[in-house]
Amino acid sequence: SQQGEEDPQALSIQEGENATMNCSYKTSINNLQWYRQNSGRGLVHLILIRSNEREKHSGRLRVTLDTSKKSSSLLITASRAADTASYFCATGNQGGSEKLVFGKGTKLTVNP
Amino acid sequence: NAGVTQTPKFQVLKTGQSMTLQCAQDMNHEYMSWYRQDPGMGLRLIHYSVGAGITDQGEVPNGYNVSRSTTEDFPLRLLSAAPSQTSVYFCASSYPQGAGTEAFFGQGTRLTVV
Fold first, then answer.
1. Stretch B91-103: mean pLDDT, rounded?
2. Whole-number pLDDT of residue A6
3. Burial class (CB in 10 A: 0-12, 13-18, 19+), B27
4. What span, in angstroms and rounded, lies between the C-alpha atoms of A43 and A48?
5. Across-strand partners of A1?
6. What's the rounded Cα separation, in Å, for the pair A51 and A65?
7. What is the pLDDT of residue A2?
8. Chain segment A72-102, per-residue pLDDT in tens
9. What's the mean pLDDT in A46-55?
10. What part of A 63-92 touches B (C-beta under 8 Å)?
C-alpha cells in the first residue's frame, strides 16, 4: 500500500513564487526522499533526509522532516517554469533504496 | 555514463502474450528494482534484488517474474499479459550505504495490453 500521501494533489503558481508540498507517511522510516518526474520521463532524485535530521537544503530546495508527526515538506523557492513537474515523496530503509514506498505525488505547474 | 537503460520504450501486447522488459545499469549497483506507475498513483514495487542471484517480491508481484544472473541486468517477465498490466514500468538501481542512498531510474517502458 502507499506509504506517503502528498498534499496538495495539484498546485498552480506564478513564476517567482514559492511552492510548498507536504507528505505524510504511516510507519517508522530510516530516510525520506523527494523525486521529480517531468511528463513522460523517469524520476530524478532531488534530496534525501535521514530520520535523525530535521531540515536539509539543496539550492532552491528546502526539506523538513517531523518524525513525531510522520510528515515532511518540500519548499521550492523562487520557482521557474522549468520546475513544472510531478513531485513524489518516498520512504526508504537503511542501506540502499531497493524498496522505496512512494506517495501519489503533487503535480506542480509554474506559469510564466 | 548511460545510467539505467530500459528497453523497449513502448510496447503493445495482446492479452495472453508474454514478453520481457529489459533493464541494464552500468553503475555497478548491487540493488535493482522494478516499479509500475498507474494514472494518479505513485510508483508501486513489483520485485527487487539485492544482488546477483537474489530476488524478492514487492507489493504487486503477481503476474511478473524476475531473475538476476548478473549485477548489470534485471529483466522483468510478464508471463501472460492482462489488461490490468497496462502501465508504465520503471527500473531503478541503488547501492547500499549507511542510512540510505538515492535511487537512479530508467526512462520507463509504456506497456499497453489489449
1. 87
2. 83
3. middle
4. 14
5. none
6. 8
7. 52
8. 999 999 999 999 999 999 998 777 789 999 9
9. 96
10. 88, 90, 92
Query: In the structure, what pLDDT confidence band is assigned to residue B74 with cuts at 50, 70 and 90?
Result: very high
What value does the mean pLDDT of chain B take? 95
Residue-wise pLDDT tens digits, A65-75 = 999 999 999 99
Dist CA B77 CA B104 (whole Å) = 21
- Contact by Cβ (8 Å): A70, A5: no
Is B77 at the interface with chain A, CB within 8 A? Answer: no
Domain range A5-104, CATH class: mainly beta
Q: Which grid cell is A22?
A: 507536504
Question: How far apart are the CA of B52 and the nearest CA of chain A, in angstroms?
Answer: 14
The runs of H, that is alpha helices, within chain A are: none
Q: Chain B residue with minimal CA distance to A38? A: B107
Q: How confident is the model at residue A104 (pLDDT cuts 50, 70, 90)?
A: very high
| CA separation for the pair A91, B43 (Å, rounded) | 12
What is the rounded CA–CA span in Å between residue B70 and residue B63?
Answer: 23
Q: Cα–Cα distances in Å, from A81 out to A64, A108, A109?
A: 24, 10, 8
Cell of A111: 506559469
Nearest CB partner across the interface for B103, out of A41, A45, A52: A45
Cell numbers found for residue B43: 510508483
**So where are chain A's domains?**
5-104
